[in-house]
Specification:
binds phenylalanine; 9 strands; 12 helices; alpha+beta; BirA Bifunctional Protein, domain 2; two-stranded antiparallel ribbon
Length: 353
């Protein structure tokens, strides 16, 4: 019997070694240890054995049963482990970084050059004690023209080709338009505060104009205003030079020409040496070597009055910095239309921050 049991164990061992499915292992277990299993069948004849034989065979039979059970457990555990490993292998996500991916990892969005310049100019003015204001793109005639000393029949209205809204229901004098300049904020800013004050207002402006290398229909300005007692043209020139020096990180050649704007008296055009061609002449400066960058002047008394400021007591200066021109000068961009092109090859060159 012992021989039978041992040879049953040998054959069990050889059978289980080739099994890879849990169900097959369980069937094999039943085949040997089940009620009609091989071991059970062998043990059935135990009842005919002598006491001596039983003493010998009993423990041996238990030993063999234990061995079989242990082998079954081990095999089941191995099969389970293999199945898990197979699943893991099949659903494998490669989380390793390739060189290619490492390179791409460093590609992230950058700021548009307009944003870079605007932030830079804002910081410069903030450090000089100016507030930064904002205002609506859609304006009334009052803020865009009337309050700025440009009445309805004034020829200066033609200086700025305007996008008007069709608005038949609204009374004359309250027509809506897309603001043609940020000077609207001069009025809004004055109305909201008491002198002395100084603020800037960057923003988008709109003109119904033909576009070319230096003109866009939608562009950026930065308005500035300082109001107080005894403000002079030299204050104006000081702030302008200081700002340009900080932006270009060097002294930039400037020139002041008389300029006419109904809302300033006297009015000036501040030009800077073209930084794209270094003054030699190019499409940006229209071959003259200078670029109009900064119209400015002393605020007209009518404008102060419209903003609720007493012109007998206070005066001030205002300027309208052409932010897009400044971007072009700073980065040597030869065509203003690039700024609005949405072309990523252009935009991705400016990743300073
Ligand atoms: N608003 C004027 C323009 O857009 C610029 C300007 C602003 C001129 C402030 C003088 C003072 O043309």
């Amino acid at each position: 019997m012992i021989n039978k049991l041992e040879s049953a164990l040998v054959s069990f061992k050889s059978e289980i070694a080739s099994l890879v499915k849990q169900a097959d292992v369980l069937n094999l277990k039943a085949k040997y240890l089940g009620k009609q299993g091989e071991i059970s069948e062998i043990l059935k004849s135990l009842k005919d054995a002598t006491v001596e034989e039983k003493k010998l065979i009993g423990p041996k039979a238990n030993e063999i049963k234990d061995t079989i059970l242990k082998l079954v457990d081990e095999t089941l555990a191995n099969i389970e482990l293999n199945e898990i490993n197979e699943k893991l292998q099949a659903n494998r996500i490669d989380i390793s970084l390739t060189d290619d991916m490492l390179e791409k990892k460093n590609v992230h969005g950058g700021f548009h050059p307009r944003t870079l310049i605007r932030q830079e100019v804002e910081d410069i003015f903030l450090s000089m004690g100016f507030e930064v204001l904002d205002g609506p793109h859609i304006e009334t005639e009052f803020y865009n023209f009337e309050a700025l000393n440009i009445p309805g029949d004034h020829p200066a209205r033609d200086m700025q080709d305007t996008f008007w809204f069709r608005d038949e229901s609204s009374p004359e004098g309250n027509k809506h338009l897309l603001r043609t300049h940020t000077s609207t904020i001069q009025i809004r800013g004055m109305m909201d505060r008491k002198p002395p004050f100084k603020f800037i207002a960057p923003g988008t402006v709109f003109r119904c104009e033909r576009t070319d290398a230096s003109h866009e229909m939608v562009f950026q300005q930065l308005e500035g205003m300082m109001v107080g007692e005894n403000i002079s043209v030299s204050n104006l020139i000081y702030f302008m030079k200081q700002t340009l020096k900080e932006i270009f990180k060097r002294d930039v050649e400037v020139r002041l020409r008389p300029g006419f704007f109904p809302f300033v008296e006297p009015g000036f055009e501040l030009d800077i040496r073209c930084q794209v061609c270094a003054g030699k002449g190019c499409s940006v400066c229209k071959q003259v070597g200078w670029v109009e960058l900064l119209p400015c002047g002393m605020v007209h008394p009518n404008v102060l009055r419209a903003g609720g400021v007493d012109p007998e007591k206070y005066n001030g200066f205002a300027f309208g910095l052409g932010l897009d021109r400044l971007v072009m000068m700073k980065y040597g961009i030869e065509d203003i239309r690039h700024l609005q092109s949405g072309d990523l090859r252009f935009n991705s060159q400016f990743k300073e921050y």
